[in-house]
Amino acid sequence: MLRRRLTRLFGGDERRVDSRTVYVGNRSSSDTEGFIPPKFCDNRIVSSKYTVWNFLPKNLFEQFRRIANFYFLIIFLVQVIVDTPTSPVTSGLPLFFVITVTAIKQGYEDWLRHKADNEVNKYLVTVLEDGQRIRKESEKIKVGDVVEVEENETFPCDLILLQSSRDDETCFVTTASLDGESNHKTHYTVPDAVKDLESLCATIECEQPQPDLYKFVGRMHIYKNDQETLVRSLGPENLLLKGATLKNTQKICGVAVYTGMETKMALNYQGKSQKRSVVEKSINAFLLVYLFILVSKALLCTILKYVSQSKHGQDEPWYNEKTKKEKDTNLYLKMFTDFLSFMVLFNFIIPVSMYVTVEMQKFLGSFFITWDRDFFDNEIKEGALVNTSDLNEELGQVEYVFTDKTGTLTQNNMEFIECCIDGFQYKHRDASTELDGFCVTDGPVSKLQQKAGREKEELFLRALCLCHTVQVKESTEQCLNLVDGLGIDREMPQTQEQGGFIASSPDEIALVKGAMRYGFTFLGLESKTMKILNRKNDVERYELLHVLNFDPVRRRMSVIVRSSSGDTLLFCKGADSSIFPRVRQEEVERIRLHVERNATEGYRTLCVAYKLLSAGEFEQADAGLREARLALQDREEKLMAVYNQVETGMSLIGATAVEDRLQEEAAETMEALQGAGMKVWVLTGDKMETAKSTCYACRLFQKNTELLELTVRTLDDEVRRREEKLHDLLLEYHKKAVQDAPPVKAGITRSWSSASQDYGFIIDGASLSMILNSSPDSSNNRYKYLLLQICQNCTSVLCCRMAPLQKAQIVKMVKNSKGSPITLSIGDGANDVSMILEAHVGIGIKGKEGRQAVRNSDYAIPKLKHLKKLLLAHGHLYYVRIAHLVQYFFYKNLCFILPQFLYQIFCGYSQQPLYDAAYLTMYNICFTSMPILAYSLLEQHTCIEVLLDNATLYREIAKNAMLRWRLFLYWTVLGLFHGLLFFFGVWYLFQNPALQDNGQVFGNWSYGTIVFTVLVFTVTLKLALDTRHWTWINHFVIWGSLAFYMFFSFFWGGIIWPFLRQQRLYFVFANMLSSVSAWLVIILLILLSLLPEILLVVFRRPRGPRSRQKAVVDSIEYCHLTSLQKVTPFKHPDCTRHTTLLQVFEGRRVMARQEKQQQQLLELKVRTTANWTGGGLPSPWTMVVSVRTLRKR
């Protein structure tokens, strides 16, 4: 039986599936049988990356994967081994600092993960051993242990339910942390299991651990003295999953079958891997270029040295004769040694200190997210949290956003809005007698219940009270779900006052509460009897005969009940597309208009129908249902046939509208993300209908969006196999969304013209499994390719009924697609952990479903609305800052080392340094490090308010725009220009042999000091010119760094240091500044170097780059080209001044009546807006001319 069920569940796969045998209570099934307890993994959960033993080697290995770190390790070893012109300290000290800082930061982050793991593993649980209740740590649970769990506790491992405190041998659990559904699910004990667990002798055969949350196959052998062994089948309804929470049940007992990393929750957990940002990858690419430049320089100098020494008298001049050891040295070895010496001399072109600055920028920058007051939530009294600071800049490069639904987009708080009975609208919020426009009555009515007639109203309300799986909560304390404010003008029953409702779906509770508002109250289910309190305060009793459960294919559910008068009734509710074909068509039109209107308003709609069953019809249905439920093969198909047979010929009563409340500003946030060029995918374990309604409410699906559905329902075809239908649908959707779609304008995610069609794509977990998990042949690879292309060309994508591992598979598929787009995943529960870990950036929401997502995320925020500022403001600014930091570091190091290279031409390639060793060591550490660090932390090239108001500005930096090769080439050329100007400008000065007042000449150290002084001032003032947002910190570090350089140079050269063998700069700096010629050349070279930047600032027209204009135009187009009065005035980048010119435009806009004049006005407004966003304000004369021009129009 086990093999047959496995074969059916896995689609006919003939591979043998191994099973495990679990001994309940770890007791042998027979006293005479030798018992060897099987070994399984323990119950420890591990999410950390390092241990005490492997931290050092593993962390060092990961750090030396960086090209710069590995390179400087080699350089350091060369300096130690080979006699080089510079000290090993110049390379070893910065490298040691980088490695130490990074190791401490990563070690601290992993320590936090260890701490979180210990909270779970050290949690105390109750285990039953030899009739005693023993408290143990969770990590000590073994497979086979009988565990006791009390109400509101989470299950410590995967358990088979053996005993429950409820009389009906059931228990209720919530699996919100696993699949996102916070509703209650019913689980059942194993039939015929003895109540005395101490005397229970049984074994369980079940499948090996696998990650599917909704599948479980096993059987239990119950051994009784002198009786035949009982065998009972086990399914998902008997399995309690780790991470789920026990609800509405005092306590249960279960046997552990899967523990630790073998539980379904752990198998859906993606291992934490090292995430690397796109900026780090760009740095590595740039480093390779500069490494090539370095090797080329060293190789060229080595060749030129030996070419020059090949001339007579150059190899061994009279003043520098070779020693005997030098003469005996092998020529090729000496050439290789010289090559290494040149490598060491020029190695500062590789900016190892950049990694120190980047690490500091990321670490300190993360505090700005934590300190942001806009992220503080008064409800939970917490703000944002940064778990991984390595990805700050990645927040500005997101192209795909994958979001969970329950708890992320919605509050999972259903509210009954209205209903329609026999074509008449009933709104509980509106106590007036207003009738909607779809219905006609004979005149005004005074009470709502008079619209459709009393008989129809009561029949509809009875259907709402009976057709559900709701149960009354048994609680001793006030429940959060307490029904209040229902507007019922009579005393509520005691049951509802002290407790609330629980159900498998939150909208069922909303419908039951909606019926209570109109006088019908569900009192509960007792021994298969459903009780209702009607308007007359009479209790009606109905015997529950059968429940025809909801499934995504039928999209409806039914109950069969028998009233006290003996009538057998079938009540059915479901989606309109599922109900309408099964009722009388003359009844449909009266309800259809209401359903369509409610759907367009974003409400969840359900239609309600009923049928009076004759005795013969019920007997036939009852026999068919009992036979199908006992079938071992094709059980689902047989049940479906009976369902379809009995649910025909019904009468339509009415429809309901329920609202699933969205998170605060959820729709605005999604719209802003799409305006920024991101594509939003919703990945949820919830039902398709629920998720689709949420997508409409969040404006991910619009009214004119054509939905392409690839689900089990669309794949069901009686004529063709599912694979053939899948192939045809993929080709059809690909032709629609990809081949026949017009070319999309770059950067626009949604088209507003009526000529083009927006598409939305819907896929469920079963269909995705057919595409992703099939045999890897050419056809399946093509299916995956088609699916990816369809999804990428759709406005939004909805993936429903997804297991946690499938969410990660979706993210991985997009992440590894062409172009390697940057992905972001956001969720609030443990079911979202896998996709959070798989995406480039993982965001956890501090919601109500535990903190698993927060612990495993890179960033955590209290609410979804905070994602907008996190990406559009913080992400944008972090990326711009660090991109400028990287380009600036390469630029200033090229300026630094190019004169050193040119100097070798004039010193006979003798490896003579141009700069003093102190300057070599402190250039990147002290003289130029603090200004760029302050810039990378505080710079705001555009005001935060502007970034939030204009989401399209995010597109300017998309796809790593500021670290592309074109800009890298610009900075490299700028560095070459400045380096050549520094060296040859000073060289031209030194053509005058007497530069001092006493007629003495400057030496080589004076030459290098002048070059170095010009270098430090130029690169620092270049950064000052690039700074738009000045603070006192910027002023302090920029002018302070220059002052510190002057002070250090005077101090270093003005004292005789006893620990130095030779003091090269003694009084050099003071003598240099005593020369008027030196002052003149320093000032002149600084001005010449910065002249292009100064001219650009002075003569730049007050308008931003064309991309900025385009962003503003796109933002107006994205907002449906709304009226100009809705566009808020921009602020100047310093955020201290406002302009009123737009208000003048608005006052005169009414005069532009013709379309041409309106277009001219729009162009004028956009042009002026672009001027302001470009960093300058229009002059008063421009404002006067603009107003006069407008008046003429």
Q: Explain this structure to me?
A:
- This protein is 45% helix and 16% strand.
- The chain contains 39 helices and 33 strands.
- A nine-stranded mixed beta sheet has the order 14-33-32-31-15-27-30-29-28, with helices on both faces.
- The longest helix has 41 residues, at 866-906.
- Residues 1-17, 430-450, 475-499, 745-755 and 1102-1193 have low confidence and may be disordered.
- ATP binds at residues 404-406, 508, 550, 573, 604, 684-686, 801, 807, 831-832.
- Its EC number is 7.6.2.1.
- Keywords: ATP-binding, Cell membrane, Endoplasmic reticulum, Endosome, Lipid transport, Magnesium, Membrane, Metal-binding, Nucleotide-binding, Phosphoprotein, Translocase, Transmembrane, Transmembrane helix, Transport.
- One of its GO terms (biological process) is phospholipid translocation.
Secondary-structure blueprint of this entry?
Blueprint (H helix, E strand, L loop, with lengths): L1 H8 L9 E5 L31 H9 L3 H15 L7 H33 L2 E6 L2 E6 L8 E5 L7 E7 L5 E6 H4 L1 E8 L13 E6 L10 E5 L7 E5 L4 E2 L4 E3 L3 E8 L5 H4 L10 H32 L14 H5 L2 H16 L5 H20 L13 E2 L13 E4 L6 E12 L2 E4 L26 H13 L4 E2 L21 H5 L2 E2 L3 H12 L3 E6 L2 E5 L5 E10 L7 E8 L4 E7 L1 H4 L8 H13 L3 E10 L1 H16 L4 H12 L4 E12 L3 H10 L3 E5 L4 H10 L8 E5 L1 H4 L6 H18 L19 E6 H8 L5 H15 L3 E5 L3 H12 L7 E5 L5 H6 L2 E5 L6 H5 L2 E3 L4 H41 L10 H11 L1 H10 L5 H6 L15 H25 L14 H23 L5 H23 L13 H6 L2 H24 L6 H13 L22 H8 L6 H19 L6 H13 L1
Parallel strand pairs: 15-27, 15-31, 27-30, 28-29, 29-30, 31-32, 32-33
Antiparallel strand pairs: 1-8, 2-3, 2-4, 4-13, 5-11, 5-13, 6-7, 6-12, 8-9, 9-10, 14-33, 16-17, 16-26, 18-19, 20-21, 21-22, 22-23, 23-24, 24-25, 25-26
Helix pairs in contact: 2-4, 3-4, 4-10, 4-28, 7-9, 7-27, 10-27, 10-29, 11-13, 16-17, 18-27, 21-23, 27-29, 27-31, 27-32, 29-33, 31-32, 31-35, 32-33, 32-35, 36-38, 37-39
